[in-house]
Amino acid sequence: MHHKFSDRVVEEAIGLVEAGRPTEKWVGFHVDEHGHLIQTASKRRVISQSQIVPLLTELYAQPSWKSGRDRFYKRIAEQYLGVTRRDVMEFLRRQKV
Length: 97
Prior knowledge:
The chain is α+β, with helices and mostly antiparallel strands. It contains 4 helices and 4 strands, in the order αβββααβα.
C-alpha cells in the first residue's frame, strides 16, 4: 500500500507523536533526533509530498544511488514512506540523460 502525506498531516503527526498522544494511524512511529517521523518497525522515514522531489534529487545526485528505475524505486521504498513508483518514474523522466 502506498500513501501520500501532505505537509500538514506530517506536521500534525510529529506533534502528536512527540506529545505522546499519537492517533491510531501513528502508533508505531517515533520522531528521530533530526525531527523526522519514522515508522519504528521498518525504520522508514515518512516523506511529505513537498519533500519528494528534493529527496529524489539529493539521492539521484549520489553515484551509488544511480541505477535503473526499478532498482532506484526499490531502494527508496526500503527506506522511505510516501514516495510512489509513479513519483520516481516522473522524476526520472525529467532528468537529463
